[in-house]
Amino acid sequence: MRGFSGKVAIITGGASGIGKAVGEQLARKGAHVVLADINGAKANEAAESIIRAGHSATAAELDVTDPEAVKRLVDSVASENDRLDYLFNNAGVVVFGEARDFSYEDWRRVIDTNLYGVVNGVAAAYSLMIEQGFGHIVNTASLAGLVPPVGLISYVASKYGVVGLSNALRVEGARYGVKVSVVCPGLIDTPMKNSKVLNLDREKLLGAVPSLLPVDECARVIVGGVERNKAFIVVTPMAKIAWALHRLSPNLGMWLWGRQMDKLQAIRIADEVRV
């Protein structure tokens, strides 16, 4: 309880999924959480649920691809509370499909949200945290930021960027008292399973996915890792095994992921290439 009691945390993508579950965990441990989400109504519902449980929360409507809006929120929260202890750059989107089926807008939406959303959060909060002499930035990447699964190419590109950014910022931030962690979940039961799918049979795609870890269990791992200031917070045993294998033998890892292309080809529902 001492670790988070009285602390202030902003969580983007806080209306549902991992962001909402992390917010609930932190609030139960005594933190004041600001749940920021592009869906303001759902963010309000999530915050009200935390308040009804006797904890402290507020909500904010936020598009993380708008750097000025992110800066306004960070400055406002820090000013109102005289501090900002945590920024969880958690908002994210995914599009499933082969690279040949992606439009430019599909690429842009994923990278703008997943990578530039993190950049915007860092740009808004990092200098503030240096000035106050403390703070912890927690960036949500994915197992797909550590290994290259098929059918997720824009997501992989964005999450590899988040991992690299987080590692570099952790090195810099240590000099100024600012901590940085990157979260790399495996398969978690979140609304992302309802995301856009390009030229693949959605039911067969989801049917091929192994069992998903409940989001509350994922949140407990994340909060515990943040409390211990872990550089990498990898969630699920399967994700840890996949990452270890990829580090041990990258070529073998790439070969194994390549074998999954046969399964992806088997569930295609259109052969028309999008330009």
TrEMBL record:
Which keywords has UniProt assigned to this entry?
Oxidoreductase
Give every Ketoreductase domain span.
7-191
Q: Does the keyword Oxidoreductase apply?
A: yes
For the keyword Ribosomal protein, the answer is no
A Pfam family that this protein carries is: adh_short
GO cellular component terms, semicolon-separated: membrane
Q: Which PROSITE patterns match?
A: ADH_SHORT
One example GO MF annotation: oxidoreductase activity
The record's listing under InterPro entries reads: KR_dom, NAD(P)-bd_dom_sf, Sc_DH/Rdtase_CS, SDR_fam
Protein family: Belongs to the short-chain dehydrogenases/reductases (SDR) family.
Q: What's the protein called, per UniProt?
A: SDR family oxidoreductase
